[in-house]
Amino acid sequence: MEQLKPQDFPALKNDTFLRAARGEEVPAMCLCGCMRQAGQILAEFRETRAAQDFFASCRSPEVCCELTLQPLRRFPLDAAIIFSDILVIPQALGDGDSAWSRGGGPVFPEPLKGPEDLQKLKPVVDVSEDLGYVFRAITLTRHKISGRFPLIGFTGAPWTLMTYMIEGGGSNTMSKAKQWLYQHPGASTSCWQLLTDVIVDYLVGQVAAGAQALQVFESHAGCLGPQQFADFSLPYLRGISCRVKKKLKADGLEQVPMIVFAKDAHYALEDLSQSDYEVVGLDWTIRPQEAREKTGKRVTLQGNLDPCALYASKENIEEMVKKMLEAFGCRGYIANLGHGLYPDMDPEHVGAFISAVHKYSEKKEN
Amino acid sequence: MEQLKPQDFPALKNDTFLRAARGEEVPAMCLCGCMRQAGQILAEFRETRAAQDFFASCRSPEVCCELTLQPLRRFPLDAAIIFSDILVIPQALGDGDSAWSRGGGPVFPEPLKGPEDLQKLKPVVDVSEDLGYVFRAITLTRHKISGRFPLIGFTGAPWTLMTYMIEGGGSNTMSKAKQWLYQHPGASTSCWQLLTDVIVDYLVGQVAAGAQALQVFESHAGCLGPQQFADFSLPYLRGISCRVKKKLKADGLEQVPMIVFAKDAHYALEDLSQSDYEVVGLDWTIRPQEAREKTGKRVTLQGNLDPCALYASKENIEEMVKKMLEAFGCRGYIANLGHGLYPDMDPEHVGAFISAVHKYSEKKEN
Question: Does the N terminus or the C terminus of chain B have fewer Cβ atoms within 10 A?
Fold first, then answer.
C-alpha cells in the first residue's frame, strides 16, 4: 500500500468540536468519540481486533484506521479519536520486543521493581522511529476521514504510565507505585521527566502526522490525594501542555486544542483549569455546577454522564442527557460520558445517548 | 469454655475515643484502631488467621477476640474494632452453608445474576441465630479488654454489600451492580430494604452484646455519582442511623456514637454530616479545611492520612501527621488513616504514625 504523507489533507467540513474546545460559540453542542473504548461494543470492531493480538493491532496503520472509523460509521459523532493505547510509550521505553496484552485490562510484562530498573529504560526515545507506527495510523486515518470531522490524538500522563510500569497491570490501591512516591521521590521524578520528554515529542509528532486535537489521560489521578497530585502529577501535566504548545510553534505547526482528563481528581479542578489546556474532562462524580464554579470560564468542560447510565432504557437515557445539558449550559461544553464504555453495552443505547445530545443541544439554540 | 454474658462489663477507663466521637473536649486527640486491616501487618495475626479458613475465623469468638486484641498489644490505640467481616450479612442471607473466601479480596461464591435471584435470599434473618457468633465475639472481647478502651462494632452499608452480592468479588467499575440501579431499581430497592432491616438488627445486637460505638462502611460509594448516592445510598445510611438510635432507646440500651465512612464520596460530605451519625470518616482525597467547611461543627471528623504514607520514612510520617493535626484542629477530630493498611506495611511505621499522633495532639493541649 502506498504510504500517505501528512500533507494535503482534505478540508475540514465539521469544525464544531474544535470550536467548542476553544470555547467559541457553536451552532450546537457537540460530542466527542465517546472516549476511546467506543469501538469495543461493536461486533465489527471485536472481529477486526480479534484477527491479531492487541499490540499488532496498534502497530498496523490500516487496522488502527479501520478501528478508529468503525464507531463513526455507526454513530453521528463530531470527532474521532485514533485507535491506539496509552502503553505504547512504556513499550517504546523498554527493550522494544516485549509487548503488553489486554485481557481484563492492560498487563505490562516486566514491571519496574525498584529505582535501579530505571537503568533498563532507554534514556532517549526517537518517537519517529519507535512510535512512527502511531503517526502513520494518524496520517492514514486523517486522509480517510475526508474532513468529515477532526481527528484527536492522545497519550497517557506520566503518573498513570508509571503506575502501569510499576504495578505491571491494574490495581485497586496502586500501592506499589505509590510506594515509590514516598520512598523514591528522586527516582520517581527522573521517571516522570523521562516520560514527559517522550510524551511532548510524541504529541507534537501526532500533530505533525495530522492530529487536530490532543487528549492527555491521567486515568489514575484518583489514588493520589490533593498534595500528591500537586507534587507528582500537575507539574508534569502543565509541563506537557506548555512544551507542546511551544514546540508546535517552533516547528511551524498549527496550535491544536488540548484536553486533560484526570479521573477522580475532584480536588484539582481549579488547578487543571489553569494549566494551559483548553478542555478539562470530568468524571461522573463531579456536579456540573461545581465544575463551572471551580473552573470559571477559563476552559471548556467535557463530560460527564455515568457510563453505566447507558444500561438504562432509552427514554431514561434521553432524560438524563437533557438534565446534563441543562446543568452544563450551552457555551464551552462538549457532551460526553464521564469515562469509557464497557464491552457489554448495547450499541443502540449509545445511539440513544448521541441522538439525545443532538436533539437537546439543537433545541437550546432555538 | 464458659460463655460470658453481655453484662457486668469492666468499667471503661479510657473514654477519650467516645468523647471525641461525641464532639466533647478531650485531653488529647485520639486514634481509632487504624481501621479494620490493622492486624494483617502483624506476624502473630497472620499466624492466628492462617490456622483456619477466613469464615471459620469469623465464626470463632475466641479467634475474633485474639485477632482484635493483637494490634492493641503492639500499639497504644484508644479504641479496638472487632475482628469480623462485612460479608457476614450476605452470608446470613444465603443458604447458610456457602461461605466466602478472601485472597486478594473477598470472593462471594454465588453472586446474584438477576432480580429473580433475590427470591433465593432469606426474607428474614434472625440475627441472634444467624449472626450470634459475632455477638459472642463482641461480648468475649469486651470482657477481655477490661475497660482499657472502648470496643467498636461495624457493618457494611446496603449498597456496598449489594455490590459484593452481585459482582461476586472486587471490581474496578462495579458495572454489574450499577446495571441493577439503572435496569432494576425496584429490585435494588427491595434488596436494600432487606439489607437495611438486617443491618439495623445486627447493629443493635452488637450494642446489646457490648459494642460501645458502631461504624458503617460504604466502601463502594465512589463508583456512584452525586445523584445516585443521593438516591441509592444516603436514604439507607440515614435509615440505619435513625432506626438504630430508636431501637436502642426502645430496648433500653445505651446510645452509642455512630461513624459513617463513605469512601470517595467527596460530593456527599455535607449530606453525610446531616445524617444522624456522630462521626464522618474521610478518605485521603479530601482536604481537611474543605471537610470542615462542608460539615460545619455538626460532626466529628475521622481520618485521613493516605495509608501509603506509611511507606515513607518515620521522620516524614511524623511531619505528615503534624501537618494533618494542624489542618484538622483539636476539637471534634479523631486522627486516623484515610483507609485501611496494606499487608506489606511495616509495623514500626504504624507505630511511628501512632506516636506522632500522641506527640502532637498532646502538644496542642499545652
Answer: C
